[in-house]
Amino acid sequence: MNAAYVPSDYLPVFIQLILALGFIVTTMIVTHMVGPKRNSQKKDDPFECGIPVVGDARTPISIKYFLIAILFVLFDVEVIFMYPWAVNFKQLGVTGFLEMILFMGLLLSGFYYVIRKGVLKWE
Amino acid sequence: MDLTVLITKAIIILVIFGITLLIATYSTYAERKVAGFLQDRLGPNRAGPWGLLQPIADAGKMFFKEDFIPAQASKWLFILGPCLAMLTALMSSAVIPFGDSIRFGQYEIPVQGIEINIGMLYIFGVVSLGVYGIMVGGWASNNKFSLLGAIRAASQNISYEIALGMSIIAILMMTGSLSVRAIVEQQAEVGFFGWGVFTQPLGFVIFLVCAFAECNRTPFDLPECETELVGGYHTEYSSMKLGFYLFAEYINMFVSSAVIASLYFGGYHYPFAAQAHEALTNALGANTGHNVATAIGTVLFFGKIFFFIFFFMWVRWTLPRFRYDQLMNLGWKSLIPLSILNVIVTGAGLLFNFNYATWAIVAVMVVLAVMSAAKAPKGAVAMQKA
């Protein structure tokens, strides 16, 4: 295990990134080149089990999904806040623990409100 | 960084990269064999001995299929979708320690792509990017089935990500480091009963369930459930673009198995590892003995990974799919409160220097389950059993 970390420790990330990008780009180009190409008007339609297509998929979708997304942002930020706290947990001791319980209590009361409002109720 | 070290790192990354692709390829074969076994049939057995060349034949077929882009689709986003899914899947294996270290000359190089002190955060970040691949691809297809699949995938992944992050926090509190290697080494210090699964039983279960959901595996495969949505988010895809989506799923499965193995099952550590290391260095000399001990650890680590990959498949061919409201209720109303409780109890236990505090929650949960089963009317229990 390293005692001290320096920015150059991150260099291998770029090696991996270049490798992954190279693999993906090559595969994409090859697969575009080798396959056959036959187009027709019917074939280019979106696949909907053979039923004639009505409109397209750029339609409004249920508000529930947006609510889930907004809740996710709230709670995920909370989780990210907890990472540094968790790493330093042993140094922070009882005070840090109580403070985090207070923080989580506030968030959980919000969570309770969300559940009581029926945001997470799926019909 | 020393150039020799960097070159060795590059070689290690290349090897890990190759192994990842190989395992992902053969996971497709293994999945079909496991499915065949569980459903009392043979599975692929035509291409090569025992059908071993089947994945290569499949990959070849994928390349020679027509690379089809629907007329109404957003062309560039349509191409970008599978590339993003594949890129995030390939990047996530970087920080996993596959073994202790290799010694040659004065160098000591860890068997790991990148040893950084934000390992867990890196995995968490890259995995959460994975949802973009599915979302972009599904939306760009301009197909109603794809759109529904993509939205389902997005909301499912983000819902389970919260509980996933929370269950990791309990581990981080115990180790005080984000480096995956440090987490493995702390488990190794305590020995067999220091493994995460013994100190964090509830966290392990939560993490496992969330890993299933993040990989879109059955019972959480609502984004691509063929009975409702044709093919889900990849309905319109063909050729290697479809191949990328399927491949990304198997790579994700491999990476999450590796993360589960290193967080909760001691990584490359095994019982009596220290004694074995000492015996080997005495018998073979400091460098060779150390390298052999590393090799044993790496092989056992892969054994653990393969077990979890098998577990993923076992569950897939055993359990039926969730309904959407069941999925959301499990994620938001069960796993998130449970993981918060897990964090609090772990913290309280750590303040009193007791590492096994979370067993209290498990005990309470088991008691509650038994009580509710005993209180339920006889007919209900019989129906659940049947």
From TrEMBL, chain A:
Its EC number is 7.1.1.-. InterPro entries: NAD(P)H_OxRDtase_bac/plastid (IPR023043), NADH_UbQ/plastoQ_OxRdtase_su3 (IPR000440), NDAH_ubi_oxred_su3_sf (IPR038430). It is a multi-pass membrane protein. It is found in: Cell membrane; Membrane. The keyword Kinase does not apply. It catalyses: a quinone + NADH + 5 H(+)(in) = a quinol + NAD(+) + 4 H(+)(out). One of its GO terms (cellular component) is NADH dehydrogenase complex. The chain crosses the membrane at residues 13-34, 65-86, 92-115. Keywords: Cell membrane, Membrane, NAD, Quinone, Translocase, Transmembrane, Transmembrane helix, Transport. It is an enzyme of class 7 (translocase). GO terms for molecular function: NADH dehydrogenase (quinone) (non-electrogenic) activity; NADH dehydrogenase (ubiquinone) activity; quinone binding. NDH-1 is composed of 14 different subunits. Subunits NuoA, H, J, K, L, M, N constitute the membrane sector of the complex. NDH-1 shuttles electrons from NADH, via FMN and iron-sulfur (Fe-S) centers, to quinones in the respiratory chain. The immediate electron acceptor for the enzyme in this species is believed to be a menaquinone. Couples the redox reaction to proton translocation (for every two electrons transferred, four hydrogen ions are translocated across the cytoplasmic membrane), and thus conserves the redox energy in a proton gradient. Belongs to the complex I subunit 3 family. PANTHER family: NADH-QUINONE OXIDOREDUCTASE SUBUNIT A, NADH-UBIQUINONE OXIDOREDUCTASE CHAIN 3. HAMAP family: NDH1_NuoA. This is NADH-quinone oxidoreductase subunit A. It comes from Rudanella paleaurantiibacter.
UniProtKB/TrEMBL annotation, chain B:
Belongs to the complex I subunit 1 family. It comes from Rudanella paleaurantiibacter. Coiled coil: none annotated. It comes from the Bacteria. GO terms for biological process: aerobic respiration. It holds the Pfam family NADHdh. InterPro entries: NADH_UbQ_OxRdtase_su1/FPO (IPR001694), NADH_UbQ_OxRdtase_su1_CS (IPR018086). Its EC number is 7.1.1.-. The gene is nuoH. It catalyses: a quinone + NADH + 5 H(+)(in) = a quinol + NAD(+) + 4 H(+)(out). The chain crosses the membrane at residues 6-29, 76-99, 119-141, 162-184, 190-213, 242-265, 292-315, 335-352, 358-376. This is NADH-quinone oxidoreductase subunit H. GO terms for molecular function: NADH dehydrogenase activity; oxidoreductase activity, acting on NAD(P)H, quinone or similar compound as acceptor; quinone binding. NDH-1 is composed of 14 different subunits. Subunits NuoA, H, J, K, L, M, N constitute the membrane sector of the complex. It is an enzyme of class 7 (translocase). One of its GO terms (cellular component) is plasma membrane.
